[in-house]
Amino acid sequence: MPALIEVRSSVVPADDLKELSSFASGLNEGELRDLLLALTESLSAGFDFTLLDSSTELTPQQAASRLKMSRTHLYKLLESGEIPSHRVGRDRRITGPDLVNFERRRQAERRALAERFARANQIEREAIDELADEL
């Protein structure tokens, strides 16, 4: 099996997704069933999917491409230790699980920041309404 499989939702026929979903629904409850159902739901919603073998090691260029950032910025993250890496000779490698963990942390931080901004806006609106009521 290749270490990395990419599936673009735009090229998967809707009939195939329905058939896969039907097949998965007929399986006994478990991780495989959950995986197949999540896959069909994601593809049906228009999301592309990447399956990454847990033993996969990526070059900095490959990791930067996956994270949609410049290689320079990725190297800063590697130097700071935000993304763990190891050396193979003089080259760096990033494991697939380390890259996935970084992306999860980054998404959680973005969500938390968005929630803080939303809460700040709500507090500001409430304060303005309260002042307006007093005037």
From TrEMBL:
Signal peptide: none annotated. One of its GO terms (molecular function) is DNA binding. Residues 58-104 form the Helix-turn-helix domain. Keywords: DNA-binding. It holds the Pfam family HTH_17. This is DNA-binding protein. It comes from Propioniciclava tarda.
